[in-house]
Design a protein that fits this description.
homodimer, about 375 residues, Rossmann fold, eight-stranded mixed sheet
Chain lengths: ~375, ~375
């Protein structure tokens, strides 16, 4: 598979939703080959703590790509057919400009001086990257969770620039409960004295404990009650009986502590604040007089919306609201509710029903628009 | 209403599940009057952060009793008929012996030297308090959430000493997800440098930020997604538009921060560690060869089990497991699933269906056993 890592340094700043101008770069990976008439490009949008290493080894964790089971030669997102682009989002911490970047105006790390970015801002920057490739129209935009929000924003704000959209395990706005969980995570980070009002980089400290707690809380929301019970239940960790103490007696405790501790090695605490904030602020209908229908009016985009039955962070009801709005404007939409006990995380896991939905949808769309047919040089 | 606050200082230590002996006291309140043959006593067991002020003003918060709508003259738990006892649990921080108490062996505050207590230990201490009243048999034991665990433990371990039991919004064991949320709370407390390995009392510090984060995370689990959405939705707090910052833009954020901050004024952080641990350790069937049925075999107790449809912390399924086990041993059990959108917190709120279930169950049980009839002097 043809795989490249690169950095796009925009020569122009973008104007953000908050009103500020920002000079920025995006770190991105590509897989496969862009065809001559540039009709086979798929943009993949990663989730909150995801990255551009969708089908390649993450250089920090040395783990294989987070969608390596979905993206590659012969896989549902077939890199023998499609040219896949995945960029670290604006505000992220894996090479794209974010709060851990240097502020060109001061020479210091931004910290909380970094402007609060929105999902729309992330998409604006991605659109510039697509311009940079001279791609008029993306064959598809695909993403789960926060990535799904970006997909929806693309569909609403860049109607003519995408042919199809696959928002997975997401919603058109962050719910009260979701904001609540994010707020707990942010408060855990800010409660850590090593956070230092966001200036920890300059002061050579790290709010590792606070960030670990934030990750632990979030991680619970990524799994279903049932999957936690099946995977861990009340099983004890490396012991035959309870310790009558505060060690990690239970496997679930040990697992969560590990999740928290390993997260801090790969993620910037301020980025976590900014990206959770962007998700909280996301409310697609709000920009269209609170009418989700209006966000999609006159769209030619083909939609495939996927949700998971046991996902309680973005329950199927949230996806159905999107499908209903699309139906009301007579859009081309298919909705797949995947029966899975794995909770929100299902979109990252081996889910054959999701795989076949993505594969079937892309193939039929490609056939309809004569993308990647034999006449094309790939 | 006859209301008294008192302290029971046990002349004998109790032997705890962990093997240690503990000298202790229980701080308790009573409401109503014990009848001459001592057949009208109801023990109420409070929840994790509850207290003995079930129907009287909490002297710390100045708030009215947490079940003042359920317990009182003419109310479902009618203090004109019944003698209500509610004691702060062992390990608590409102007058009963806990980690914030002085260790008689050292003269210092216990901190983490306090032995880890279990739900059974809490019930053992309560049984001594009931002995102190010379009550052979309680008319009923009632409680929600952690209090419901104590009710179940009473029913399993002191079969002959209670006539009826009303476990509400609870389970026979803490689930993996529930342990996970508690572990996040504990890690938030322990991550606070002011926790000082539990010695904050001696060092005149307070892990207030960590405890507030713990409370915020827990509070989300007490409400349903639906009730959060209905009550707060994405409403903004004291502003017309988002601030593009990390203030509490949303009402739900402001609400959670308030919940966190006000909690630290009334609760001891170490007590929070110990009581959550007791709940995590609770697994009634485990003591009976993993057979919940065996826990209740040959019981004469009348049970009324109550759950709430939208409670995702202790979902109705958990209550049904208890009801099924009781049915299998031919126990006298009624199960009421209250239709409520309010989540776990419903057991503390104005829920007419719960009120009438409690009232009806107590009245019919009293009639059957000739408790509180006209012949009795109350």
């Amino acid at each position: 598979m043809n795989h490249q890592s690169d950095i796009f340094i925009d020569s122009q700043p973008i104007k953000l939703d908050c009103g500020k101008q920002l000079r920025y770069q995006l770190s991105y990976d590509t897989y496969g080959t862009l065809n001559p008439n540039k009709t086979n490009a798929i943009l993949i949008c990663h989730a909150l703590t995801g990255d551009q290493y969708v089908a390649s080894t993450n250089p920090v964790t040395q783990k294989s790509g987070w969608w390596a089971n979905l993206v590659g030669p012969g896989l549902p997102i077939d890199t023998d057919k499609y040219f896949v682009i995945c960029a670290n989002v604006l505000g992220g911490c894996l090479g794209s400009t974010g709060p851990a970047s240097q502020n060109p105006d001061t020479g210091k790390i931004y910290g909380l001086d970094f402007p609060v970015v929105t999902v729309f801002d992330m998409v604006r920057a991605q659109a510039r990257l697509i311009d940079h490739f001279n791609i008029d129209r993306l064959f598809s935009v695909i993403g789960g969770s926060m990535g799904g929000m970006l997909v929806l924003e693309w569909a609403a704000s860049y109607k003519s620039r995408i042919l199809s959209a696959i928002p997975i395990a997401t919603g058109s706005r962050h719910s009260s409960q979701n904001i609540a969980f994010h707020e707990v995570g942010r408060q855990a980070i800010m409660a850590d004295p090593n956070w230092q009002s966001g200036n920890y980089h300059s002061l050579n400290t790290s709010p590792a404990k606070g960030l670990a707690v934030a990750r632990m809380a979030a991680h619970i929301t990524y799994m279903s009650d049932q999957s936690l019970q099946q995977k861990f239940g009340r099983n004890l960790q490396d012991r035959d009986s309870i310790s009558f103490g505060f060690d990690a007696d239970f496997q679930i405790e040990s697992y969560l502590r590990h999740q928290g501790m390993s997260f801090v090695d790969r993620f910037d605490a301020n980025s976590y604040l900014y990206l959770t904030r962007a998700m909280d602020y996301f409310d697609l209908a709000a920009k269209f007089d609170d009418s989700l229908m209006s966000a999609f009016i006159d769209t030619d985009i083909r939609f495939c919306i996927i949700s998971f039955t046991s996902d309680w962070l973005f329950p199927p009801e949230e996806s159905k609201l999107i499908a209903q709005a699309l139906n009301r404007v007579a859009a081309n939409v298919s909705y797949v509710e995947v029966n899975s006990p794995k909770g929100h995380d299902a979109f990252l896991l081996d889910e054959p029903e999701m795989f076949s939905a993505v594969s079937g949808f892309l193939t039929s769309t490609a056939q309809k628009y004569n993308i990647c047919d034999k006449g094309e040089n790939l």
